[in-house]
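# nightly structure sweep
# worker-07 picked up a monomer target from the shared queue
# config: single-sequence mode, recycle default, output format = structure tokens
# input follows
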Amino acid sequence: MDMSEYLKNILNPLLSPITNAIAMLAQQNAMNVAYSDSEIAEMARKEDEIRENLDKIYQSAKKEVEKYRQSYEEWASRNQELIEEQNRLYAAMDESRKKYDQLNGSIAETETRRAALERDAKEAQRRIEALRKEEKEAIRKKEKKDKELKKWFWVPGYGLYLAIDNLLYDVQDKIRIAEEQINRLNGEISGLDAQIQNARQETEELQRKTEALKAEEEANKNEQQKVAQKLFDAKQELVRWEDLQQQLGNLQAKLETGKNSPDVLMEILDILESIGGAA
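# output follows
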């Protein structure tokens, strides 16, 4: 229960019997006469009544102290869990961002390599186109010389015509090499394209993961604020109840040491009434 309920339901109902008992003892003390056995017995009964009622108040306050201490410890434990979870989320987001930056850097490097390979492939294609023209011219010359060779095969030195064939073969060999280079370059480009696509998919996944972590971190932060308020409230209540328990404990000690001393009885009454008046 909260303090106001405690004062209303526990403390205040017990104030009246304590007050009556103190008033009776004070009256007896003020008379300063010899007491009969029945009067002495009645005074002892009133002292016991004060002690019993005061102990009821103390025990109820003690239970509230234990309850709020447990509540405080539970909220403190939950608060620590949230702090640790927050640290984990920060670390996870930091790791995700670092990996995202690394992937973007890798994509940029791969795209640079791809662009260079693509330029090499275009250059090889231009060489092939130029060589195709040379090949076409060499074929034309070869066909022309082949016709002439059929007419003049008997002329000494016809082997000079072989130079035409060698020229053609050389051009075709260059074309073959350039085509192989293009095929190799295109293969490398395809491999880089696959790398870039995979890396981009991974960066998208990292972005989704980071956004999910942000949402989780925000929810955690909101809960931390609520738990921190609960922890603060529990601490405040615990302090109030501990203070009340301490006061009641002191009153019990005074009652035991002072017995039915008028000063002690009036001090007990004043303190209890001041506590009750806080409702």
